[in-house]
Amino acid sequence: MKKRNVFLTALLLCSSLSVSAAVQLSSSRIIFKQEQKEATLSLKNTSSNKSFLIQAWMSDQENNKLTSSPFLLTPPLFKMAQNSSANLRIINSGRQNFSQDKETLFRLNLLSIPSQTDAEGAKLVVNNQSIIKFIYRPASLSDHDAALAYQKLQIKSDGKYLTLTNPTPYYVNIGQISLNGANLGANGLSVLGTVPPLGAVTLPYNAALRNVTLTAIGDRGALLTPRSVQLR
Fold first, then answer.
1. 8 Å CB contact between 51 and 82
2. What is the pLDDT of residues 94-109, one digit of tens each?
């Protein structure tokens, strides 16, 4: 099984429901099923005085931009006027060569560039980028089992590291975790990342660990029922 340090996977969950303060997204993740022809992500510009140029592209789970993406984004570059809405279509190109016994993870990147007026001159422009988790789910896998995958995580501690091992073919998305009753969110670590299919992540914890409580994130972006495990 491939192990990843949990801090290296943290960015995979750092997606927001907006690419800027004004541009709102309809979802923070997309589950693309094998039988689907396309999926749609809706965007809304709530600003009454600012338009945005939106650029979209796909990258792999390591954030390497895909020069030949198995999914087509249309339009890949578009302008959103004030108080307007738009749809980004993600189309199945039919050129995939994915594993059929486990999920595959991509990143859908959205960059928003605000417009400038002549009065603003050479004012610094801050571009905003959001990363949407994009998971390809083969037909052999079910939504029901995906929702229960976090219950099957194997949780162990050796006094130095906490290891979460995933024996399932699904990505398990961790939203919150508490160790010995202390929520790591207090230390800025409430978003820990994903545990890959048939893989593992480790979290440094140099102390006796008695209790682990974790909360996973479901397909729709909602927190699932917390799971608490007593360790010996």
1. yes
2. 877 889 999 999 999 9
Last residue of a domain, one of 137, 171, 195: 137
**Could you tell me the CA-to-CA distances from 192 to 16, 19, 22, 77, 202 in Å, in that order?**
15, 21, 27, 31, 10
User: Contact at 8 Å (CB) between 179 and 211?
Assistant: yes
What does the CA dihedral 68, 130, 25, 132 come to, rounded to 10 degrees? Answer: 50
Same structural domain for residues 162 and 128? no
End-of-domain residue from the set 137, 163, 195 = 137
Reported residue count of the chain is 232
Q: Is 168 exposed, middle or buried (0-12, 13-18, 19+ CB in 10 A)?
A: buried
* 166 in a structural domain: yes
pLDDT tens, position by position, 32-56: 999 999 999 999 999 999 999 999 9
Other CB atoms within 10 Å distance of the CB of residue 222: 9
Q: Are 224 and 218 in contact (CB under 8 A)?
A: yes
Judged against a pLDDT cut of 50, whether residue 5 lies above it is answered with: no
**Which H or E run contains 62?**
none
The residue segments making up the domain with residue 183 are 142-230
CATH of the domain at 200: 2.60.40.10
Continuous H helices in the chain: 6-9, 143-148
Return the closest-CA partner of residue 105 out of 63, 145, 148. 63
